[in-house]
Specification:
Order of helices and strands: EHEHHEHHEHE
Shape: globular
Number of strands: 5
CATH architecture: 3-Layer(aba) Sandwich
CATH class: Alpha Beta
Structural class: alpha/beta
CATH topology: Hypothetical Protein Ychn, Chain: A
Distance between the termini: 22 Å
Number of helices: 6
CATH superfamily: DsrEFH-like
Number of domains: 1
């Protein structure tokens, strides 16, 4: 079984960023269809996506909802730094803070995950 960790750093402010999140979700969907072990983490400015994706009028809202149970979590430190921590809490997604307030990306490598950054 392939182990894939998708980490979204892309900000919400460009069409390119939207493309990155869309491609991250396509990879996640393909991984699920193939029975791969999957983790999705939102980190850095990517933490801002959760509030946007929670909006019903967001064009990726439906896809987001279909993948939401595969989202491992969101960086606690960055959610606070980018002013979106309350949105993350409201979404019900876990805040990750294993290493100095951030998710431990090193642990992903130690666990044998192939890490893809968007």
């Amino acid at each position: 079984m392939t182990k894939i960790a998708i980490v979204v750093f892309a900000d919400t402010n460009t069409v390119e960023a939207l493309g990155k999140v869309s491609n991250a979700f396509m990879l996640a969907s393909e991984a699920i269809e193939n029975g791969d072990q999957l983790k999705i983490i939102f980190e850095g400015a990517g933490t801002k996506w959760i509030g946007e994706l929670e909006k019903e009028d967001n064009k990726m809202h439906g896809l987001y909802l279909s993948l939401k149970n595969k989202i491992t979590g969101v960086c606690s430190y960055c959610a606070q730094a980018f002013g979106v921590k309350n949105e993350i809490i409201k979404s019900g997604l876990p805040l990750l803070e294993e290493f100095k307030g951030h998710p431990s990306l090193r642990t992903l490598f130690a666990e044998g995950f192939q890490v893809v950054i968007f």
